[in-house]
Amino acid sequence: MHIHRLEKIWLLFGTGMLIVFLTVVGVGAFALGMEPPGHHRHTVDPEKLSTTEPFNRPGLHAIGGNAYEANIIAFTFSYSPSIMEVPLGAKVTFNVTTPDVVHGFQVVGTNINMMVVPGEVNHLTYTFDKPGEYLVLCNEYCGAAHEAMMMKIIVK
Ligand code: CUA
Fold it and tell me: pLDDT tens for residues 88-141?
């Protein structure tokens, strides 16, 4: 089979670039230990949420000053708690997980938008400095009643 000289050059160039990119990614991941953003992974047994800290106490809890933690369990097709009252100006650190399938946790009108994965705990801190009712939606398709999956955060 005859391969044109210019085609050979491009094949070598393409293969060379592939090797360069894979080497860069490989050295970053395995030698330098680079990971996706997020400092540490927090895992949990999805079958034991009701007996595992902090998900054995869903809802908002004061942790000092105007800081709170909000422990949220997403499940088909709701959230626990389904309504949460937050004092105006509170700095809330969310801990979110699910016992079943992948869900979303998006607070409309804020930049809070997390994927909720069974076995993993997602964290995000947000300061609620505008009063009002915030709608929380699931933005990952999770089954028949996905579009009905929501909760409310009331800031006052
Ligand atoms: Cu939960 Cu869609």
Answer: 999 999 999 999 999 999 999 999 999 999 999 999 999 999 999 999 999 999
103 in contact with ligand 1, CB cutoff 6 A? yes
AA identity, residue 71: N
Beta bridge partners, 96, equal 72, 122
What DSSP state is assigned to residue 3? -
For the question of residue 30 being annotated catalytic, the response is no
What count of residues does the chain have?
156
**43: CA distance to ligand 1 center in Å?**
20
Q: How far is the CA of 127 from the centre of ligand 1 (A)?
A: 25
User: Is 77 an annotated catalytic residue?
Assistant: yes
Asked if 116 contacts 124 with a C-beta cutoff of 8 angstroms, the reply is: no
What tokens does 92 get? 């809330």
pLDDT tens per residue, range 5-27: 999 999 999 999 999 999 999 99
